[in-house]
Automatic annotation (TrEMBL):
Its main location: secreted. Pfam families: Glyco_hydro_16, XET_C. Residues 1-25 form the signal peptide. Catalyzes xyloglucan endohydrolysis (XEH) and/or endotransglycosylation (XET). Cleaves and religates xyloglucan polymers, an essential constituent of the primary cell wall, and thereby participates in cell wall construction of growing tissues. This is Xyloglucan endotransglucosylase/hydrolase. It is an enzyme of class 2 (transferase). GO terms for cellular component: apoplast. It comes from Handroanthus impetiginosus. Keywords: Apoplast, Cell wall, Cell wall biogenesis/degradation, Disulfide bond, Glycosidase, Glycosyltransferase, Hydrolase, Secreted, Signal, Transferase.
Length: 281
């Protein structure tokens, strides 16, 4: 019911649809470099962005816009070679103690050992909803597309168009859902060798620094938040859900590539799993 009245609030802006295909993504237009003292760079007339990390500092950027619901794609090429100890984060987040957040984190590894793709969803300041995956390709050899669909009914994480995780709106069973707080896109590359690789056993090898991750082809179909209201360029994705073929792909990933799921970690939840676990794919 809550989400229905919220949808009504969206209808007016949706009527002013101006469907936009950004011909060439431009990092100057959409993002600001926020930290790293020159370690983050926008290159090739705005078509490429690189983050780097050395012993003194990592680096990061954020979107100029805030969004209330979005469908966003970004191509990332992760730190190659010995990336153990490094973490590349790419996420949506709102502000404050009861913030919402939708996270991708890429945990580096020794050359030839697999990255972990770590995901989490925070609602009203509460996370603890980790799912982790190996990838079915080497994420350092080339650019791959990491997408987030965030609409009033669901959050879908996809890699190269294959859904890997769905977080459904479970407000009907008492689980808060992100739908009132606008979020910004953030990304950063930093040192997390106290936990990232094999749980912190493998440390960052600083002789390999600087470590570099690259970004290109940002695309968005989003509701941009401005002075207290949100306006959407296209509305079809606001009701998007997984079709049968996508459900099958999701099952395939979860069966073959998922290495951790909080919803099956019975040691962690001896009193019973969080309620949304009964409502997840
Ligand atoms: C790194 O490689 C080891 C050995 O294959 C594996 O257990 C671990 O999950 C990999 N990823 C990370 C981030 O530790
Ligand atoms: C939506 O369209 C407006 C008007 O053309 C444009 O300024 C804005 O950047 C677009 N927003 C997104 C998220 O594509």
């Amino acid at each position: 019911m809550g989400s229905r009245s919220f949808m009504l609030a969206l209808i007016v802006p949706i009527l002013t649809i101006s469907f936009i295909t950004t011909a060439v993504a431009n990092f100057y237009q959409d993002f600001d470099i926020t930290w790293g003292d020159g370690r983050a760079k926008i290159l090739n007339n705005g078509k490429l962005l690189t983050l780097s990390l050395d012993k003194a500092s990592g680096s990061g950027f954020q979107s100029k816009n805030e969004y209330l619901f979005a469908k966003i794609d970004m191509q990332l090429k992760l730190v190659p070679g010995n990336s153990a100890g490094t973490v590349t984060a790419y996420y949506l987040s709102s502000q404050g103690p009861t913030h919402d957040e939708i996270d991708y984190e890429f945990l580096g590894n020794l050359s030839g050992d697999p990255y972990i793709l770590h995901t989490n969803v925070f609602t009203q300041g509460k996370g603890n909803r980790e799912q982790q995956f190996y990838l079915w390709f080497d994420p350092t050899a080339d650019f791959h597309t990491y997408s987030i669909l965030w609409n009033p009914q669901r959050i879908i994480f996809s890699v190269d168009g294959t859904p890997i995780r769905e977080f459904k709106n479970s407000e009907s069973i008492g689980v808060p859902y992100p739908k009132n707080q606008p979020m910004r896109i953030y990304s950063s590359l930093w040192n997390a060798d106290d936990w990232a690789t094999r749980g912190g056993l493998v440390k960052t090898d600083w002789t390999q620094a600087p470590f570099t991750a690259s970004y290109q082809n940002f695309g968005s179909d989003a509701c941009v938040w401005s002075s207290g209201s949100s306006s959407c360029n296209s509305s079809t994705w606001l009701n998007e859900e997984l079709d049968a073929a996508e459900q099958e792909r999701l099952q395939w990933v979860q069966k073959n590539y998922m290495i951790y799921n909080y919803c099956t970690d019975s040691k962690r939840f001896p009193q019973g799993f969080p309620p949304e676990c009964t409502n997840s794919a």
